[in-house]
Amino acid sequence: MATKKTAVKMTAMDKVKLARDPKRPHLLDFLKYAASDFEELHGDRLVSDDRGLIAGFATIGTAKCLVLGHHKGATVEENLEANFGMANPDGYRKAMRLAKLAEKFHLPIVTFVDTPGAYPGDTAEARGQAEAIAKSLEFFSLLKTPVVVVVTGEGGSGGALAIAVGDRILMLENAVYSVISPEGCAGILWRDGAKAPEAAEALRITARDLKNLGVIDEIVPEPEGGAQKNHKAAALAVKKAVLAAIRELEKIPVDKLVSARYAKFRAMGNFY
Amino acid sequence: MAWFKKSETPAKIPPTKALWQVCPRCGSYIPKDEWKKNNAICLTCNYHGRLGARQRIAQLADDGSFAEVFREVSYSDHLDFHDASGSYKTKIDAVIAKSGEKESVVMGTAEMGGIPVMLGVMDFAFMGGSLGTGTGERIARACEQAIAENRPLVLCSASGGARMHEGILSLMQMAKTSAAVGRLKEAGLPYISVLTDPTTGGVSASFAMLGDLNITEPKALIGFAGRRVIENTIHQKLPPDFQSAEYLKTHGFIDKIVERKNLKPFIVKMLHYFGF
Ligand SMILES: [Zn+2]
């Protein structure tokens, strides 16, 4: 009940702050409570093993699956190692490599989205950040295995979307998902970064907004006060929702699944 | 902006935008009529400047062959978006009234060297060529019609990226268009992507980079993140050629840099190789 009251009062910018809270559970925290096993696998077989995006096989309840997601830490050291969840092209290419492997062995894929955006660095540009994201969007739209997406924290633009093309899109109650950061948008359209709260409101970036816009399928409730207060409860809620989605998607013949996934994104922003 | 600063010191009579075109690459002042006569190409450095969608269509389609489609598809204001300068609706309606275009991409059936194609051209003058829901819808429909009618897709991009006034639905057009070109390619049809100046952000990170062939023109700007954002991230100045067509080609993301005058014959030749 208290949760509901605070949720109503929270502004979009409050949610942005919560979504970025370093104490919030990140991929490995979710897996700690939601998976009985996680075996990380490394590298894109081209250039490197990106640490901004990690992937591996996991057992969630009774489901064997591939998990991939942005990597953030709780401390500065951990975050430096994880590049603050900002993936390089190598990370997206690793994700595609392992997703292809999951497809080969008919394993469902669960992605965890939590990034400020794809890494905006010169080396990332040199190795084709744009191409890697573009390829990933095309790749996941054609992939012949179920894909469940969970937006757990910051859904930051193209770097988030690159691993968010799936059959079911879940979003935590206090997560945000946006085409641009409120600060970035305010800087351009308000010519004042301090107007970020206005921009956050205008952009419609909360789970409730996205549900209304038809961009996500389901809001996963967070424990009282937010996921940062109780990692375990948050992880178990995610586990429950993910398992239900996997069970539902596994029943659908794979060709129908891929057609439905196309239709899902095809209809976004469609008003005819 | 950079060129403007440069111009303040040397020029005695400040050249006005009305009379002079200032090359954004080398800073040369070129009389506007000469710039037009030379097809928006810099005589000093060979930078291939921006063309309007209709201009480029005229240069690529066989005479009289272009038939526009999906003109009824325009923007949508799902968010009822307002910013400091007012409403998105007011802003874009003014752009529509002034330009006569209803979206940032013009799409049609056409022939190129006698080959029936789907031809799409983005216009940077329309909201910075931004990717709105209407833009995405036109591109997705074009892919579907190309599949139905067995036409290659030739798509020229020019865009600053997603249209933030349409929020998350603009972002979703990256997925929608990428999925649509993916299907086209799976259907065995060629997709030739022409990345013209500038192609950045969400457009470079979706359909524009997914061509069976990615081709571009000399000195076009192509990249994901903005130069200033990157410089702030790495705390370093970037070299002038960073994110140029030539830089992209050197790093392996562009099949060929083609001069404007050769663009159509090159595309037609490639389509011949693909059996069309
Ligand atoms: Zn020049």
How would you describe this structure to a colleague?
The complex is a heterodimer of chains A (about 270) and B (about 280). Chain A is built from 13 helices and eight strands. In chain A, strands 1, 2, 3, 4, 5, 6, 7 and 8 form an eight-stranded mixed beta sheet that branches. The model of chain A has no long low-confidence stretch (mean pLDDT about 95). Chain A has one domain: 2-enoyl-CoA Hydratase, Chain A, domain 1 (Alpha-Beta Complex). By secondary structure, chain A is an alpha/beta fold. In chain A, a hairpin with a 2-residue loop joins strand 2 and strand 3. The longest helix of chain A is centred in the C-terminal third of the chain and has 20 residues, at about 230-250. Chain B has helices at about 1-10, 30-35, 55-60, 90-100, 135-150, 165-185, 200-205, 225-235, 245-250, 260-275; strands at about 20, 30, 65-70, 80-85, 85, 105-110, 115-120, 155-160, 190-200, 215, 220-225, 255. By secondary structure, chain B is an alpha/beta fold. Chain B folds into two domains: about 15-45, no CATH class; about 50-275, 2-enoyl-CoA Hydratase, Chain A, domain 1, CATH 3.90.226.10. In chain B, strands 3, 6, 7, 8, 9, 10, 11 and 12 form an eight-stranded mixed beta sheet that branches. A two-stranded antiparallel ribbon of chain B has the order 1-2. Chain B has a two-stranded antiparallel ribbon with strand order 4-5. In chain B, helix 5 (about 135-150) runs parallel beside helix 6 (about 165-185). Helix content of chain B is about 35%, strand content about 20%. Chain B is globular, with a radius of gyration of 19 Å. The longest helix of chain B has 20 residues, at about 165-185. At the A-B interface, helix 6, helix 7, helix 8, helix 9 and helix 10 of A face strand 4, helix 5, helix 6, helix 7 and strand 11 of B. Bound molecules: zinc ion.
What is the compact description of this entry?
The complex is a heterodimer of chains A (272) and B (276). Chain A is of the alpha/beta class.
